[in-house]
Amino acid sequence: MSGPSLPSLAVYGVDYHGVGINLGTPFSLTFHSVLTQPYEELTVWVKGAANQFYSLGLTLDGQTFFDGLVLSQQREKTLDGDRLKLVCRSKPGYLMTENQINPYVYFQVTGEAAVQTYAVPCGIEGLRVDESKTVARMLVSERQSYWDYLTVFFMRAYGKLPYVARDNYIELTPYSGRSLMLSNRQTDGIAYLDFADHFKIQMVSSVWFYTGSDDFGDLYEEGYSNAVAAIYGAKKELYVNPTRAWVLDHARYADYLFYKSMVDSRVIEVTMAGMPDIHKGDSVVFDRDSTMTGNLYVGEKRIETTGQGVTTTVWLWDKQFHKL
Question: CB neighbours of 1 closer than 8 A, spacing ≥ 6?
Answer without folding.
Answer: 183, 184, 185, 186, 187, 188, 189, 190, 191
